[in-house]
Design goal:
about 200 residues, mainly beta, SH3 type barrels, seven-stranded mixed beta sheet, six-stranded mixed beta sheet
Length: about 200
């Protein structure tokens, strides 16, 4: 089965629907990303309807039944009241990587993080979409999809990646999963430069 890759921004605003009754119980608001763990921990939520506002509940990734391009599925509404969601929100507090600069370990600036690329089966963030680095673009205005090593140290406003990553940068999601696998195999077999 093919892994579904999605940009984190496309996950915001999706309806949260129960598999038990088909009820539309909430809407995803923000993606909770824990950079040190390289994964999506869950979602903050909005109420549904005309007078919708923010919900205090947090939906933990482990509580998801399925995620697609059009909806997030959960077994029933009780998953919104689990302690895992609050723990996920605490793990990610103050760790937003959007807007962070990305540098190679040799000092080359690749761009600024604009979005996260998420492998939805596991909730793993496998790459970043970057803004900038026009010399790396295949076509003017094309996105830069940067594969991430399996482990990544995140500190301050700058993210460091191995310099080998440059040859694995892609501009569409279609072949990006393979580029990530190839990049990770290369750095696992070649060097310990993944910091």
């Amino acid at each position: 089965m093919t892994n579904l890759l999605m940009r984190a921004t496309s996950l915001a605003g999706l309806p949260v629907v129960t598999t038990s009754t088909g009820e539309d119980i909430a809407e995803t608001r923000d993606v909770i990303y824990v950079p040190d763990q390289g994964r999506v921990a869950g979602f903050t939520l909005n109420k549904r309807g005309r007078f919708a506002g923010r919900l205090k509940n947090v939906l933990a990734f482990e509580q998801l039944h399925a995620v697609g391009r059009d909806a997030v599925m959960v077994t029933d509404a009780s998953v919104l009241d689990t302690p895992e969601g609050e723990a996920a929100a605490q793990d990610a507090k103050g760790r937003n990587v959007i807007g962070n600069r990305v540098l190679t370990d040799s000092g080359k600036e690749l761009g600024v993080v604009r979005d996260l690329i998420v492998e939805m089966n596991r909730g793993e963030v496998i790459g970043y979409e970057l803004e900038g680095g026009t010399e790396l673009q295949r076509a003017d205005g094309a996105p830069l999809l940067l594969p991430l090593p399996a482990t990544l140290a995140v500190s301050s406003d700058t993210l460091m990646v191995p310099s080998e990553v440059e040859s694995y940068i892609r501009d569409d999601l279609a072949g990006f999963g393979s580029a990530v696998d190839d990049f990770r195999a290369r750095i696992a077999g070649g060097s310990d430069a993944a910091v």
